[in-house]
Amino acid sequence: MHTDSPAPSNLPRPDVVIALLLLLAIHIGRNVIATALYFLLPDSLSQNSQYWSMLVQQLLVFALPIALYYRARPTHFLSVRTRRLSVHATVCIVVAATLGVFVMNFLNAWWLVLLDHLRIPIAESAVPVPGGVPSLVLSILVVAIAPALCEELLCRGFLFSALEVRGTWRAVMWSGLIFGLLHLQYAALPAHLALGLVLGLVLVGFDSIWAAMLYHFVHNGVTMLAAYYTVRYAEATGTEAVLQSAAVPSAADMLPTLVPMVILAALAAAMLLWPIRALQGKTDLPRIRPPEMPRLSRAARIMLGLILSVLVLGYLFLLVGAMQPGASAV
After folding, report:
1. In the chain, pLDDT over 70 holds for what percent of residues?
2. I need a labelling partner for 291 at 20 to 30 A (CA). Which of 164, 247, 260, 272 fits?
3. pLDDT in tens, 133-142
4. Is 7 helix (H, G, I), strand (E, B) or coil?
5. DSSP notation for 63-74
6. Which residue has the higher pLDDT, 252 or 225?
7. Looking at residue 323, what DSSP letter applies?
8. Residue 3: which of 63, 85, 73 has the closest Cα?
């Protein structure tokens, strides 16, 4: 495993068609398991049991197939960017990811305004807010640590290194798009797409999947902590009804926060660019994209189109289901 230098462009990589086929199988497998658990598990399943169920899905559906693939093709892991992170880079990523949570939530709030204007119901989140400290600790494991490891190994490791044969920046865009769509949460689609793009840029900028994993972990962890303490504060002050009524903000309420959010976005970008510039100034990063960029094969283009079609149909199915009479919405 290389740890201190960029991966040469001639290292063996997963075949694009195989990567896309495995990705499609993972997506289908996740939905099959989720559907089976929905019918097998009781409706009164405790909150901690829900978290354990989500963790099992992460390990079985995301981690296991990729681990088995790299066990069968260990040389392909050499194309995954694994440069070590300095303390300076680690601190900057943590700060940038924390600031980025507020920026992405602001971006997504405008999307909620649009959905509300179009009278599209806002589907309730599938991730329950922890009801106590033990549940909070478990939720951090399930919502922050497990996705940071499993989803990044899939999207910024396996999938990215396969797609990079067509160019690094195209791999950033395609892996980010697929990452965002894979969540199948139309109410949070802009935030997931933005996060996928940022994670790809972090991967390339720091030449390290550990950087993407760290950013992903902090983003999800801060999001869960914010939701937990917001609900606890509402319960303590008796403002749960006010919190529910403010679930979808108005454009008038959001406009005054536009300038502060632009400033936060600039600060987050600066915190990432600072260590990236220092890294590029001290080390040799010869590869921005592989020197040869062959066109994707016809089979790869068909598979890519099939995956996007399946994901888009999934969102349409969710939208139709949410708009049916009696569907639950926040």
Report:
1. 86
2. 272
3. 888 999 999 9
4. coil
5. IHHHHHHHHHSG
6. 225
7. T
8. 85
> What's the token pair of residue 279?
């890294």
Q: Kindly report the three-state secondary structure assignment for every residue of 243-297.
A: HHHCCCCCHHHHHHHHHHHHHHHHHHHHHHHHHHHHHHHHCCCCCCCCCCCCCCC
Nearest to 189 by CA among 99, 112, 103: 112
Q: Return the structure tokens found at 326.
A: 């009696």
Q: How far is CA 90 from CA 48, 226, 274, 275, 283, in A?
A: 31, 22, 12, 9, 17
Residue 43's pLDDT is what?
63
The Cα–Cα gap between 68 and 59 comes to 12
Q: Using CA atoms, how far apart are residues 94 and 210, in angstroms rounded to an integer?
A: 12
* CB contact at 8 A, 329 and 121: yes
In degrees, rounded to 5, the angle at the alpha carbon of residue 142 between the alpha carbons of residues 273 and 61 is 95
Indicate the pTM of the whole model. Answer: 0.91
CB-based burial label for 143 (10 Å; 0-12, 13-18, 19+)? buried
The pLDDT mean for the chain works out to 85
For residue range 213-229, list pLDDT tens digits in order.
999 999 999 999 998 98
Model confidence over 106-116: pLDDT tens digits?
A: 999 999 988 88
Length of the chain: 330
